[in-house]
Design brief:
The complex is a heterodimer. Chain A is mostly beta strands. Chain A has a single domain, classed as SH3 type barrels (Roll). Chain A has two helices and five strands, in the order βαβββαβ. In chain A, strands 4-3-2-1-5 form a five-stranded antiparallel sheet. In chain A, strand 2 and strand 3 form a beta hairpin. Chain A is globular and about 30 Å long. The two termini of chain A are 19 Å apart. In chain B, the strands form three sheets. In chain B, strands 2-3-1-4-5-7 form a six-stranded mixed sheet, sandwiched between helices. Chain B has a two-stranded antiparallel ribbon with strand order 6-8. In chain B, strands 9-10 form a two-stranded antiparallel ribbon. In chain B, helix 16 runs antiparallel to helix 18 and helix 21 packs across helix 22. Chain B is α/β, with parallel strands linked by helices. The chains are: A mainly beta, B alpha/beta. Strand 4 of chain A pairs antiparallel with strand 11 of chain B.
Chain lengths: 77, 620
């Protein structure tokens, strides 16, 4: 499962970040394997999305979220 | 007496960690003023008064890592990596978001420079249930840590005192392994924070509730458009009173001078040249200040990032990015800082397109031109009881400029060849209450720099123009000391008439032609030029410029010169034409190639001519 499929309110653990031009940027921002991430907002038309991780809000486009593979931990809370 | 301690301190940290607030608190007003409101995009220098003497403090743009992705970040890292490293790095971290804030910290710690860690926004961290054991953290890192509230000034005194003392080099090992640098760093930070940070029950932040509204598919846009409408309504209505005072002040001044000074060419120079020119422009300072106030306010509260978020999808299809919103909206105040703020856009093509189209956004220099023209041709009445018709037409001008900018972006998207995909990985900072002190300072700086910068140009242009409009060639001698009877016999009149054939198709006469030439350097000069031209023509009549222009009739037809068609054509011309030398200069500076300002000049001015031609023929 990839991060772009994570629904609002769901929490997941990051498993891996695919190689890309923005991989370093994603990892600097805290998207490293093992980190917990929660979807909190979707812009109109579902793109970009915003996530909560490490106590702050990070936004990225769907295409960028697609490069992050995750494991679902908690359904809607 | 406090001497110079020759020490240099550098403020570093992530964006939104509060570096600039801390910089302001530490330096007071002893700082070099930069021209860019909102986010820091250049290194700023200031002086800190310490007991041992004055020290230099450098504020750097917020950065997430030592490997910068955008131009503003490159600037920040340059200072730290420079040949003369600072005596101490003051790392500002947002305590509510410590893990990510410590990532860049850990990279800097590897440089083995003396460091101080400043934890800002501890109150927000407490809200989120984060409890930080500062003593433990100090012991682990081996450096001193200070908790401050950069907004209220809490903890600043203790920090200042510490700056005078010996600083320590961090000794924590962040175990950065080359091939998995990010993961190993984050692991090491995790390990560190487990020892020193506890989590209690968090409170739901107001920010997340506000965000649900601000990014709502319907409400999000309604709120955004509502805010924009409110701004433009305020620019028109709030500024009305100060503008009236300024107008009547200048009117009595010129009446007084023309009554008391002897009849001499100097009197004419003062009354019809300098004062007429300055009055035309100073009167718009209230509007410009109000516009800047709102722009800074939107960025300072964190709302601008939400606008980026909800507009990214749409802007992307036009070849821009959500990050283009800040330059585009700031372009409504002034294109120069707006173009400089594109440095935060990582992708070259996104950035270039933003630079190319931003000057189409109606800037505050166009405001005096719009206001004068609208007040001449559009009746001042209310529609549906609450909307002022003039304000509505003004709003339409802004919509026109925005639409032109977006369409031009689309055109550039297909013309420019560049295939590196862009990304939009961005923090949405917490909302916070505006820092009124910062906002007032910015507004004050803007207003004064407008008066001095624009004032200088307008003063010179007014004097030259007064001469050209008052004197003219005579058959016997080239320069006559005697004033010519008619404006059309003067040098200015001759120049205007020589370009009349070119501008006749878009409805402009030779008087407007003079103003077009003089306002090439800066748009607002149009108003000053009109004031001067009409003052020279009607020497004894010191009424407001718009009334003078309204009374002007075409000698051939007896119809008013400024008919609806002419005024609308002028409005469109000023909306699109590239008439700002400073913008062209800054575009060259930011792109490092002459071809971009040249292309910009020709496409915008071409658009203006075609647009005016269509509008003039449609309405006449």
């Amino acid at each position: 499962m990839n991060l772009d499929e994570l629904k609002i309110g769901q929490i997941a653990k990051i498993l891996a970040v695919q190689e890309s031009l923005f991989r370093d940027k994603l990892m600097e921002m805290g998207c490293v394997p093992g980190a917990l991430i929660k979807t909190i907002l979707r812009a109109p038309m579902g793109d970009p999305m915003a996530f909560e991780l490490e106590g702050y809000t990070l936004s990225m486009r769907k295409a960028e979220a697609k490069t992050i593979s995750i494991q679902l931990i908690k359904q809607n809370i | 007496m406090a001497g110079n301690s020759n020490k240099t301190f550098v403020l570093a940290g992530n964006p939104n960690a509060g570096k600039s607030s801390l910089f302001n608190e530490l330096t007071g007003m002893r700082q070099k003023i930069t021209n860019i409101p909102g986010t820091t995009i250049e290194n700023k220098k200031g002086t800190v008064k310490l007991d041992s003497g004055n020290a230099l403090l450098i504020d750097t743009p917020g950065t997430y890592s030592m490997f910068p992705k955008s131009l503003d970040e490159i600037e920040a890292v340059k200072v730290i990596n420079s040949d003369a490293p600072p005596d101490c790095l003051i790392y500002v971290a947002d305590a509510s978001n410590l893990k990510r804030n410590l990532f860049y910290f850990s990279q800097l710690a590897d440089l083995k420079l003396p460091m101080i860690l400043v934890l800002n926004m501890v109150d927000v961290a407490n809200f989120k249930g984060v409890v930080i054991d500062t003593e433990r953290l100090e012991k682990e890192l081996g450096i001193r840590i200070f908790k401050v509230n950069a907004r209220s000034g809490e903890g600043i005194a203790a920090l200042k005192e510490a700056l005078d003392q010996k600083q320590f080099v961090p000794h924590y090992d962040f175990k950065a392994i080359a091939e998995s640098e990010h993961e190993s760093r984050y692991d090491a930070i995790d390990h560190l924070l487990q020892k020193a940070v506890g989590i209690k029950n968090p409170v739901e932040m107001l920010s997340s509730k506000l965000d649900k509204l601000a990014t709502h598919p319907v409400w999000g846009y309604i709120i955004f458009l509502g805010i924009l409408f409110l701004i433009f309504q305020s620019v028109f209505t709030l500024a009305e009173y100060p503008m009236r005072w300024i107008e009547s002040g200048f009117e009595s001044l010129s009446n007084y001078l023309s009554a008391s000074l002897p009849d001499h060419w100097i009197k004419s120079l003062f009354v019809n040249g300098i004062i007429a020119g300055l009055a035309g422009v100073v009167v718009f300072v209230p509007q410009i200040t109000i516009l800047f106030f709102f722009m800074v306010l939107l960025e300072d509260t964190g709302y601008m990032a939400r606008v980026s978020f909800i507009t990214d999808r749409m802007l992307r299809s036009l070849g821009l990015s959500g990050k283009s919103v800040i330059p585009l909206l700031s372009g409504a105040a002034c294109a120069i800082p707006a173009i400089m703020s594109t440095r935060t856009i990582e992708n070259w093509k996104d950035r270039l397109i933003t630079i190319m189209v931003t000057p189409l956004m109606s800037c505050s220099a166009r405001l005096p031109v719009y206001t004068l023209l609208i007040s001449m041709a559009i009746p001042n009445k209310m529609i549906l009881g609450f909307m002022n018709l003039q304000a509505l037409v003004l709003l339409a001008m802004y919509v026109l400029g925005t639409a032109a900018a977006l369409l031009a972006a689309l055109a550039f998207k297909f013309i420019l060849k560049h295939d590196i995909p862009s990304f939009f990985i961005m923090e949405l900072p917490l909302y916070h209450t505006p820092r009124w002190k910062n906002i007032w300072t910015t507004c004050w700086q803007k207003a004064t720099s407008f008066i001095t910068e624009a004032g200088k140009v307008i003063l010179i242009v007014s004097i030259v123009l007064w001469f050209l409009a008052s004197y003219g060639p005579k058959p016997e001698q080239t320069v006559s000391i005697q004033e010519v009877e008619q404006l059309d016999q003067s040098y200015a009149g001759k120049i205007g008439k020589s370009i009349e054939p070119v501008i006749k198709p878009i409805g402009f006469n030779w008087k407007i032609g003079i103003a077009l030439i003089t306002s090439f350097a800066a748009r607002e000069v149009f108003v000053g030029t009109m004031s001067t031209i009409y003052s020279v023509e009607n020497e004894d009549d010191h009424e407001q410029i718009r009334n003078k222009m309204r009374k002007d009739t075409d000698p051939a037809t007896g119809q008013p010169v400024y008919s609806l068609a002419v005024v609308l054509s002028l409005l469109v011309f000023y909306a699109f034409a590239m008439q700002c030398m400073s913008t062209l200069a800054v575009v060259y500076k930011e792109t490092k190639q002459w071809k971009w300002p040249v292309i910009q000049f020709f496409y915008m001015t071409g658009l203006a001519y075609i647009g005016s031609f269509i509008v003039y023929n449609l309405f006449s």
